[in-house]
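Q: Here's a chain of 200 amino acids. Please give me its 3D structure as tokens.
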Amino acid sequence: MSDEYRTIEKEATGYFKDKGSKFFAFAFPVTDEEQVKEHIQQLKKEHHSARHHCYAWRIGTEEIATRANDDGEPSSTAGKPILGQLTSYDVTNILVVVVRYFGGTLLGVSGLINAYKSATMDVLNNSEILTKRIENSFELSFEYPLLNTVMQTIKQAELEIVNTDFRESCKLIFKVRKADAQKARQTFESIYGVEIKTLN
């Protein structure tokens, strides 16, 4: 089972032109629908004279949610081709919006599909696509005498510490790639006096 996914780290732009119509594509890294709304509202402000703001997004790393929106274009001629490219490039946690300025000539169904697909391909080709790991986080709770043992175990297993709280007793949060999560969990379960809790 793969514990990796592909996404973008920063925004990118793309462009396509056909018969006077201009298609400006914008890609954004997103992790929830709230961010999607903000980006779309911002683009509608910046490109208020554009005729259409069509978009698609994929969010999630294991369970992937998707949405496509034609924003007034004929059904399935805009959002679907955008989403098709996101799936084809196998990227997630991404929003692509294609802003269309109408050039006066109708492109027809196949022309529209091609235009939205091409603008999306351009923005994805201009994007820096990264492969990231799906990680699990765990919280450890234990008393001070076990601090040395826990820290040594973390070092040996090369786990990434996210947060520590050593005030009254010891609490520590670490991250591990999903493929190694079960092994890490078992390691700490075998240390008497350490409580381990899954955070995600």
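Q: Can you summarize the key feature?
A: The longest strand covers residues 21-29.
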